[in-house]
Write a structure and sequence with these properties.
Blueprint (H helix, E strand, L loop, with lengths): L16 E3 L5 H10 L3 E3 L3 H14 L9 H15 L2 E6 L2 E2 L9 H4 L7 E4 H16 L1 E3 L4 E3 L12 H12 L6 E5 L5 H8 L4 E6 L2 H13 L6 E5 L10 E6 L4 E2 L7 H4 E2 L3 H12 E12 L1 H5 L6 H8 L2 E10 L16 E9 L1
Parallel strand pairs: 1-2, 2-3, 8-9, 8-11, 9-10, 11-14, 12-13
Antiparallel strand pairs: 3-4, 3-5, 6-7, 14-16, 15-16
The structure holds S-adenosylmethionine.
């Protein structure tokens, strides 16, 4: 498994035609959709306006549209947007009205001048803001600083439900593993809840970097050991708690962050095999899940129910909580049947 941090790779400038504020965004969008490569040469706002125009020209699907329709839109936008380029000089975005993005230095120490797709510069900028300022998490009683390329929760009902479960848990808290730790939020919750040693794993090297930095921000005063590995990793020491907030939908990965959202066929089978071998005799396997898969992919067999039917584990408890309504871009409350869930399993 490569420990190299993930970053958007520089692209060639060859054949790219210049665009600036004198180019109409509609004209630029037409050319991008035809396959032409364009380079923004004057200002950040020029690139942002073109991508905004592209987004609307491709007709974003409405709330409640099918998974296939949403994936199709996402792919079409991604394909066309990657053809709009932005210049980086001396680790800075070489456009007027652009702001500082330290990741252009940190992730590209080997190359000061290069070209990136504009949309990836926007993502690096958003990620830098979140990392630098931190994201407030009431459930943690403070901020979390997700590193670039790391999944960070945007809603918190499932984290609050996990915290509620942990408060009621009366078993041993000596050792735990947070499988697929992301930016480390469940590991930090367990540390706050009195777990004495927490191994935090992820296959994504950026997630591990995120947790390493998060521990350093706390001067090392949290008992978390980040490990870059698949699922529970090597070794045979048993864990009192095996915690996993897996991807909640079955689907194909088209980007690194998709690994946080979509699971491939064998993920749960492999997880349960390892969890069965590593959970302490009176320990618990705890999954943070949601009914979203049953709502939007009813044809997919439920991975936890399927494991329970196989008889290796018994269900100790299942907590459920309604997901708080969000507002649509128009300001209206979105109603949802979505529930987040905590599944607490013990060895049969
Ligand atoms: C839904 S996110 C959860 C992140 C975090 N635990 C949280 O609750 O916010 C799933 C995480 O699992 C990681 N992941 C996916 N497959 C994995 C695997 N086979 N082994 C370890 N981590 C994995 C992803 O990189 C991602 O960080």
């Amino acid at each position: 498994m490569t420990t190299q941090l993930y970053r958007p790779e520089p692209v060639s400038l060859k054949g790219a035609q210049p665009v600036d504020r004198n180019t109409s965004p509609g004209n630029a969008v037409m050319r991008l959709r035809k396959g032409e490569r364009l380079m923004v040469t004057d200002a950040y706002s020029t690139g942002a306006e073109i991508l905004d125009e592209l987004y609307h020209a491709l007709r974003p699907p409405r709330d409640g549209a099918s998974y296939a329709l949403r994936q199709g839109f996402k792919r079409a936008f991604r394909d066309a947007s990657l053809r709009l380029l932005a210049p980086i000089k001396n680790h800075r975005l070489a456009l007027q009205d652009s702001q500082h993005i330290e990741f252009l230095r940190e992730l590209y120490a080997d190359t000061p001048d290069f070209t990136l797709p504009f949309v990836q510069v926007q993502e690096l900028f958003g990620a830098w803001q979140a990392y630098d300022h931190g994201v407030q998490m009431a459930v943690l009683g403070g901020k979390i600083h997700p590193y670039y390329g790391t999944y960070a929760p945007t809603r918190t009902s499932h984290l609050e439900l996990f915290a509620q479960w942990l408060r009621g848990y009366e078993g041993s808290k000596k050792t735990a593993v947070d499988v697929g730790t992301g930016c480390g939020v469940l590991a930090l919750l367990m540390a706050r809840g009195g777990v004495e040693h927490i191994v935090a794993t992820d296959t994504n090297a950026n997630a591990i970097k995120s947790v390493v930095n998060e521990i350093a921000r706390r001067d090392g005063a949290v008992p978390i050991e980040p490990v870059h590995t698949d699922l529970l990793g090597d070794g045979d020491t048993p864990f009192d708690l095996i915690v996993f907030n897996p991807p909640w939908l079955k689907g194909e990965e088209t980007s690194l962050l998709d690994r946080a959202l979509y699971f491939e066929d064998a993920l749960f089978e492999r997880f349960f095999d390892q969890a069965h071998a590593r959970v302490a005799a009176d320990g618990r396997v705890v999954l943070v899940f949601s009914n979203i898969m049953s709502l939007v992919q009813p044809e997919v067999p439920h991975p936890i129910e399927r494991e329970l039917e196989a008889g290796r584990f018994t269900l100790v408890s299942r907590l459920q909580r309604k997901v708080r309504a969000t507002r649509s871009p128009g300001g209206r409350h979105r109603t949802t049947k979505e529930r987040v869930e905590i599944w607490e399993l013990a060895k049969a």
